[in-house]
Write a structure and sequence with these properties.
By secondary structure, this protein is of the alpha/beta class. The protein folds into 2 domains: 118 residues, Winged helix-like DNA-binding domain superfamily/Winged helix DNA-binding domain (Arc Repressor Mutant, subunit A), CATH 1.10.10; 163 residues, Glucose-6-phosphate isomerase like protein, domain 1 (Rossmann fold, 3-Layer(aba) Sandwich). 51% of the residues lie in helices and 7% in strands. Strand 1, helix 9 and strand 2 form a beta-alpha-beta unit. It starts with 6 loop residues before the first helix and ends in a 10-residue tail after the last helix. About 7% of the residues have low confidence.
């Protein structure tokens, strides 16, 4: 557990990795941490509707030694902690924002959620998995990104990032093209599949086509036990934002995508470090064009 991550942020980050019974305990803690901090193990078991053994498993599941450690971590949280400063809105238009919110509370909620995701990423993203994924990319040929919906943002970012350092990367939003390319690429290619839930049908389908063709797969998801993650050689776990089985809100929050962008940025950066000279050479080729594109033309520059 990262030292800079509060216990509530950590529970939220690993929620998707827990078994259903332990998720029930996590939900009870996140819903009312002030009440839970005054409970002993037996009381929390009764409050959550689970056995005392399940509470002990929950504590170990979030990386703590015993219930006493759990109580101490809860006690460290101040009443103004941003992870509980704004309670959940039963029904809202965007990421816990409801009818009574003002400009001030909206800005506060969104800013705190972005901070939560960044901090939680320290708990969910495994450095060893990240290094394994980066080494796969260094030794691979072309890289195909697979994604759908708002996860396309991370895929498009990845194409530019890796392309800039000389790694041929591609992404097509059309689901048929994704599947066809995944099945047709040469044997030295690999795929990077991105899905918060790990259950997006077209992403799972295209990744399966890649695996059937013998291609390795890196998966970026919030749910390491999801169907997509089961197809992965390496899984990069991002902070979970909603339930995986169709429980996401109608207006899905873009804040949740920052975890994916964080994973792509970290993966790109480590890949560049592992192949430093190559990265510098190719980045140097592109820099002059970036500078040119940002120059405002004056009247005397125009033909």
């Amino acid at each position: 557990m990262a030292g800079q991550t509060t216990i509530l942020e950590h529970i939220r980050a690993v929620h998707g990795n827990l078994k259903p019974t332990l998720q029930t305990v996590a939900d009870a803690v996140l819903a009312d941490p002030d009440t839970v901090r005054r409970m002993n193990l037996r009381q929390l078991a009764s409050h959550s509707g689970v056995s005392e053994a399940s509470i002990s498993r929950f504590v170990r599941g979030i990386g703590l030694e015993n219930y006493r450690d759990f109580g101490l971590r809860l006690a460290e949280i101040s009443p103004t902690d941003p992870t509980k400063a704004h309670p959940a809105t039963p029904q809202g238009v965007y990421d816990n924002i409801g009818r009574t919110d003002t400009a001030e509370t909206i800005l506060s909620k969104i800013a705190h959620r972005q901070i939560d995701v960044a901090r939680s990423g320290l708990a969910t993203l495994d450095p060893e998995a990240l290094e394994q994924a980066a080494r796969m990319i260094v030794s691979a040929g072309p890289v195909l990104f697979l994604a759908a919906g708002s996860s396309c943002l991370a895929a498009e970012s990845g194409v530019v990032r890796f392309g800039r350092m000389g790694i041929p990367a591609m992404f097509h939003q059309d689901r048929n093209n994704q599947t066809i390319l995944a099945a047709s690429l040469p044997k030295d290619a690999l795929v990077i599949a991105i899905s918060d839930s790990g259950r997006t049908a077209q992403t799972v389908e295209a990744t399966q086509a890649a695996r059937n063709s013998g291609l390795p797969a890196i998966v970026i998801t919030s749910y390491p036990e999801s169907p997509l993650a089961k197809l992965a050689d390496v899984t990069l776990a991002t902070p979970s934002a909603y339930e995986p089985a169709g429980g996401e809100p109608l207006y899905e929050s873009m804040v949740a995508k920052y975890g994916q962008l964080l994973a792509v940025d970290a993966l790109y950066s480590l890949t560049a470090v592992l192949d430093y000279d190559r990265a510098l050479e190719h980045l140097g080729r592109g820099d002059p064009h970036i500078k040119t594109s940002r120059r405002i033309a004056h009247d005397d520059d125009r033909p």
